[in-house]
Structure formats: structure tokens, C-alpha cells
Amino acid sequence: MKRSVIKFLTGAIMYLAAFQPQKALAQARIHGSVLDKNKRPVAMANVLLLQAKDSTLIRGMVTTVSGAYSFMNVPAGTYIISASFVGYRQASTAPFPIRDIPDDKDMGTIELPWEDKQLDKVTIIAKKPLFEQTIDRLTINVENSITAAGSTALDILERSPGIVVDLQNAVLSMNGKNSVVVMINGKINHMPISAVIQMLAGMNSGNIGKIELITTPPASLDAEGDAGYINIIFKDNNNYGTNGSYSASLGYGKGLATGASINLNHRKGRVNIFGDISYSRIKKPLPIVSHSKISYMGDIRETFVHNNRVDTQENILARAGLDFEIDRHAVMGILLSGYDNRYSQAESNTNLITRNTKLDTTIRLANSEINHWKNFSGNMNIQFMFRDDEKLSANLDYFYYYNDQPANYYSSYFDNAGNFVYDQYKKSEKRTNIHFWVGAADYSKALGKKVNMEAGLKSTISAFTNDFSLEKWEQNAWTTDQSLSADYTLNENYSAGYVSFTALPDKNTEAKMGLRYEYTNSDLGTTGMKNLVDNHYGKIFPSVSVSRKINENSSINISYSSRITRPTITNLAPFTYYVSAYTVLTGNPALQPAISNTIMAAYNLKKNIFSLSFSKNDNYISFQPHSDSLTNTLIISPQNLIDLKTIFASFAIPVIINKWWSMQYNVSGVWQQVNAIYDKAPIRLEHINYTLNMSQSFKLPRAFSIELTGFYQSPSLNGISTREAYGTLVLGIRKKMKDNKGAFNFVVNDIFNTLIFAQSANLPERNLVNGTHIAFSQRTFKLTYSRTFGKDKLKGKRDRLTGAEEEKDRVQ
């Protein structure tokens, strides 16, 4: 193992040495003011920071009541400032360079001449790449991707660098760790992770603008989730008047895959009304093959499962919001959202059970399940801008989730000669209600030219009920299995406070230091037994980050953070789900929170980024298998491991061949060591794996373009189990219409049918041998048409924050 690590690090150093310097990564502040012909300030004017070479939009904002504007942390380059307002002609500065870090770059005043006719629009001509890597996050520009057209959010995540989707165990992991926090437009989604994955599997990409993979969250974000944050951001329309976009797709793999979406925005005066809705329906087969071997009293019993299953996923997601400008210093808003996710499956499978390699029993099963989640969320917020460098925002959020999950199991048993013995009927019902109230206040202020402060308070109150029952058909009547049925309740509240400072000690150094304190009260019980789980704990979570410009061509960032992974509500509440006759998923009320400490270093050279991190997770939570020799059953449940140690290294490598061919490669490697207890004995496993993500774009004549994306994941650890290598390749072809507002996209997903889930545990000395092979995806052909409509005159957008933005997905 040591030789593998040395070889990996040696290769990394050789790679970095191969690159030549480029322009500096300096940061600067650019500011000025906009006046009219009579030298009076023009408030609410649109001010754009553009690259001088191609007018690419870098940032945009509106002027204050005094006509002032300010752009912070601008990287090195050559820029133009453009200003416009209704009734005036557009005005721009001459190109100017940013090469170093002055205290500020005063651009003086921009004078807007009067004009009666409407201003011409600013044309933004550059296209963002599919992946944009910065030191603290990777941004996936879904809106500009050809292969993303007609896909789901889960499809896009599955082929994103550092992301592993485990559909069998309903787990999302990032950079080798499972505790990922999922946000939608900066708002935490509080559904259980299995329901989040179900929602993402049906979320149409038509309304998604981009997805952010945030690996080093600051102190202002909650300490929950040591792996980081996945933030799904819907398309943001900042134009005047009424405008929007729509898309529709039709596809076929081994079943129909359809979807549609529409996005609307109306902005006039002080009012902005916006909303969107998307729908998707995907039907496909899901073949499953599994095997387990259990020894008991000298006998070796093996179970072979062949499962023919058909899944249907329907998803509706909608949002509606209103922002109202009270005056030039205050904005208030209301946001309502909800979704309806319905998953259904029907399956027939055969279980062959052998004893000492000879057929003993055959079980034929016919099962069905519905997993139906509904959600409603509301947010009220107000934001005060006291000055350019001082802001206060306050939020109140309410979330409601309801889940109905009935399942039916029918089994017929036959002896080794094929003679019918008996049959068995079972059915289960799970109803879940979840309520969240979240209140938050955040304040930021500049304490001079070189120090900024942020501080905030938050409180969350949640209530959870989970009514689970399992019934068996016995003597011509349904009988409830009391040992596996209960009505669970959980009441939990947690509060947090944080303060962080960003300082510029000199022109080459930026430091950020933060402290966050969180306190949790959690009480889980049943109608007959109180305080199954009664936890009360508080902890301080520090975070430190230092960025240093080494020279004109490179910079380095070093950070440390401490985070927590609390047991998710649904994992704490016991439940029983039959994967097959002798494979069961359950919960675990004894789970304890996990604490992680992470050190990371990132080196930036040209547009290439190399990062290296080490983390240690004590009490790491992971779904693990356990063999019950007495009942010949494989039980899979969430468990606390002793610890998980992870070394994660990644490269981001953009390559531009010429004007019509560009590519992006992301290479990452993971070393992991798992320490656990299995059957009262310690166990240690080590493993090294790597991932290669690739995206290539080709611009062709007659408004055609091609995109080829894909990834390869080598074998990897999942607790004490190993997942086999897998990957996929996706091809997309786009044809833009002459008016540049419409486009046809033809996409082939999983060209070679290689997106396979195959996981196994091979520990015969611990009586644990099992494996599962599932084809979650099939080659699918999709045709999508998308179009924008309405006015396209740009207006600066509101920097909207919501109270749940840093909230924890504690239901997961």
C-alpha cells in the first residue's frame, strides 16, 4: 500500500512540474459610481464587469442610492465596466488591467448620456465549460451541457467528478465519504436520503442551471455532513418584462422516458414574480442477481436470487416566488415550493437455496411496492442593505413531508424435487410525517478595508412520526407482527451560532477563521416505550483557511475543519424492508453521531488545480451486512464503524486544442482504511481507488455541436464491502435554431450499458460472503427541444439568501 501511495504522489509532483506559469491569480476590489449628465447619481443602474477580450460577463450588480458600485475579490485579468439604465445610453470604460492587489481600484465616475429610445442589450458571447473547478468547489454548468438535455439530476451527479451514487443502499458519497448535504437553491432538503435520491432520479434537468459540489464549507454553513454540500441551482432569469424558457423530451431505452419543464419570470418596477414546474416519467426494467453464503453447524447454505423487476418513477416539482423592493435598502420575499414523487415497482423473482451445494428449497416471489413522497415548503425573508459593506438578513422557513410506502410480498415454497410445500403472504405499511420550523438571522460587515466579519444565529424545531406495521396472512386472517411493528416519534431541536472573519494581512495572503457552536436535543420513542434515544450534546466546530499567492503564476490554499454527522432520523427509527426472502434492510436506534477532522491543501497553477486532503471520521456511519446463521438471513443496517481514514487527491485539467475542440479531465484518487467490529472481533480493510471524468466539446458548422462525457470508477470500498469497477459514456448532438433561442438535442445515455452496480463482501473467516449485481441503467435514446422566450434586457439580480440555506438534512 505504501508503494502505491508513493507512486501516486510522485506522479502528482511530476505532473505539476510539467506546467509553465501563467498570469497571476491576484484578487482586487474595483469600485466607482454612475452619474447622469447633470452629475447626479443614477440609482439601480445595471453595472457589468466584462472581460475585455470577448465581453464575457464576469459579474453584475445594481448601483446604490448614491450611484455607487463595488466588485470584490476580482482575479487578475483585463476588464471593461459597462453601465446602463432605462432612458440613458449605455456607457463603458476603456479596458484596464488587474495585475496585483491594490487596496482598491477606483474607476471614478461613469456618465450616462440621456436617450429617448430603449438601450441596446449587452451581448454575452462566451460559453461556460461543463465543469468549472475552483479551490473550494466544482461547478457543473448543466444549462450549457448538451449531454444533460433530457437527463435527470441524478444522471448528471452520477457522472460528476468525486460523486458516487449507490442506488442499492440509497447513498450519495463525495470524495470517498457518504455524509453529503443536499441543497436545492441553497435550501437544505430534509427528506430521507433514499427519498432525496428518488426525487433526483425524477428531477428533469430542463429547469436546472448548475450544480455546485462544495467540498470545504465555511463556518456560516452548518457543521453537518463531513463530505460537503451538493447545491442544485435552478435557472435564474434576471431580465426585465415577462420571459422564460421551456423544454420537452422523449426517450426510449427498455421503456419510455419522458419529461417537460417551464420557467417563467416577470420583473417590473419593484416587483419580481417567478416560478417553474417540471415533470418526468421514467419506466425501465431493473434486473437483479445476488448470492450469499452462510455456514451453520457444519452446513453451508447458499442463496441465489434472480429478480425480474420493472420500476416506474414519476416526479412533479414546482416553485413560485415573489420579491418586493420596499426601498433602496430593503427587499422582502416569499417563496413557496413543493413536489410529488411517486415510485412504484413490480417484480417476480426466484430464490434457489442449496445446502452443501445440493438444491434444498426453491422460493418463487411476486412483490410490489409504492413509495410516494409529498412535500410543501414555505419561506419568508427580508434583507437590509445598510451600506455596501453591511447587510442583515432574516428568514423563517416551514417544511412538511409526507410519505406513504405500502409493500406486498407473496412467496411460494417448493422442495428439492419441485413439489409445492406452502405459500406465504406478507404486507407492510409505512406512513411518515415530518415537520420542520427554521428561524435564522445572518449579519455581515466590513471592519475596515482588510477585515470582513460574518455572524449568525439559527434555531430548528422538528417533529417526526413513523408508523410502521408488518402483517402476515395466517388462518384466513391478517395478523400483525408486533415484534416488527411500531409507531415511532422523534422530537428534536438544535440551535447554532457562528462568527467568522476574513482578513488580508498583505497583498498576497487571505485568511479566513471561523467558530461554530451547535447544540442538539433529540428524543426518539414509541407509543409504548419512551426515550429509546435521548441525546443532548453540544460541540464547537472550528474552521481555518489560508490562501497564499506564491508568485505571479501560482497560489496555494490550506484549510482545516471539524464537522459532525448526526444519525439520520429514518436510520434511527427501526424499519424492515425485504430485498428478497432472506435479505432484509433495517434501522438502528443505537447509532451515535460521527465526528470528522479534515486537513486539505490545494495548489493552483494556470487553470489546473491539484488538491490533497486527509480526514479521520470517528464512529463513521455506514450501511453494513451481517449474517444471521440461525435464520439464514443477510441483514443490512446502518452501523457505527470505529473509524474511517481517507486520503483524497484530485487533478482538474482543462485542455483547449483549438477554437472548435476543447476538453476537461478530472482525475481523483482515494486511499481508505476502515476499522470496524464484526461479530465482536476487530476488522481492518485498506483500499486504493481512482476515478477519471472526461468531457469533450466540438463546435461544428451550421450551428451544430457535439459533446462526449463519461467516467470510469475503479473498484472501491463501501464499509467492509467492495464495489466493482463501473463507468459510462454519453454522447450528445445539438442543433441551434437560427434565432439562437431554440435548440434540438439528441442524447444517447450509457452507450455501452456499463453503468452496473456490483458489490460484494468476501470474508469467509467471518462467515460473511455475499454479492449483488444490478443493472440500474440501460442504453437510452432521447430527443429534447428547448426554447427561451420573452424580453431579454438584462437587470441585476437580487442576492437572495434563505434561512434554511445552511440547514442540516437531518432526516437523511
Structure description:
By secondary structure, the protein is mainly beta. The chain folds into 2 domains: 25-112, Sandwich (Immunoglobulin-like); 131-806, Beta Barrel (Maltoporin, Chain A). Helices cover 4% and strands 66% of the residues. The strands form 6 sheets. It has a 22-stranded antiparallel barrel. A 6-stranded mixed beta sheet has the order 9-10-15-16-13-14, with no helix packed on it. Strands 2, 3, 5, 6 and 7 form a 5-stranded antiparallel beta sheet that branches. The relative contact order is 0.14. Residues 4-26, 116-126 and 795-812 have low confidence and may be disordered.
Unreliable spans: 4-26, 116-126, 795-812
For the record, the count of structural domains works out to 2
Beta-strand segment tally: 48
Structural class call reads: mainly beta
Largest sheet descriptor:
22 strands, antiparallel, barrel
Shape, principal axes of CA atoms: globular
CATH architecture of the largest domain: Beta Barrel
What proportion strand? over 45%
Query: What is the residue-mean pLDDT, rounded to a whole number?
Result: 82
Share of helical residues: under 10%
What is the tally of helical segments?
4
CATH superfamily (homologous) name of the largest domain: TonB-dependent receptor, beta-barrel domain
Rg over CA atoms = 28 Å
Q: How would you briefly describe this protein structure?
A:
The protein is mostly beta strands and 812 residues long. The chain contains four helices and 48 strands.
